[in-house]
Amino acid sequence: MKIGFIGLGNMGRHMARHVVEGGHDLSVFDLSREAGRPLEESGATWAASPAEAARGADIIFTSLPMPANVLEVATGEGGVLSAISPGAVFVDLSTIDPDTAITLDAAVRAAGAHALDSPVSGGTAGAERGDLCLMVGGDRDVFERVAPVLNLIGDAEKLVYCGKIGSGSICKLANNLIGLSTGVILSEAFGMAMKAGVDARTLYDVLTASSGDSAALRGWGTSILKGDFSPGFMVDLAAKDIGLATQLGRSLGLPMEAANLAQQRFIEAQGRGWGREATPAIARIQEERAGIEFRFPEEDPPAD
Asked: What is the pTM of this model?
């Protein structure tokens, strides 16, 4: 297939690489010209604009930071829809709100093409390995048509058809709300236990062997408990995602008390200048309050 891929950030560059390694004719675009060079070395072609990436493509992927970025790339001057082929499939891999997914779908349909919202979960490590979970909303027959390409990006066992357009985005917001809010609770739990005299390794071993275990906790084992806040899924994006979830809750007339508290913690971390650090950086706020660093003992580092 001829495929266009727009957005080559921490997630997109890995997903695009799997597509080109799958033997497809890939055209890529990003605001950073340098982001495309490794993909060109793997056989991709650089496009000068989103429209050029989309021209003649069977599938166009976008992986972008914000809902507004998705709509701009799709409908703006030099955007995807100015060059999309009739019958092509526009697959948005970004985390957006369902209203934006519905708006995008209407614009794509008006251009004679098809749209799927397909946010992903699994972080940069999952993107690099190619075993992401993909949550897909849109027409089922369109989903089945592009599933072989989606399986290059994610694990086939984690490719989930969620329902009508926007359903993938709803599932992704629910997923991220749970995972990111868990990080806030983890920081409070570690602060409490360590302040009371239990070391981080002991608590981690107990939690991973009991009902307190979670993917968020195991993420801590390779990040904050090692003192590693290097870029992964950034605080800025986490704050955006929780904000989209609380926005959806308000639109439904649902109170979101715990989500609002979690959102405030990420906003505070942004105010500290940690927006581009990995999400476990929010724990540093609770570290300050407890007067303790949440780290494994140096003589007992965690296994990778």
From this structure: 0.93
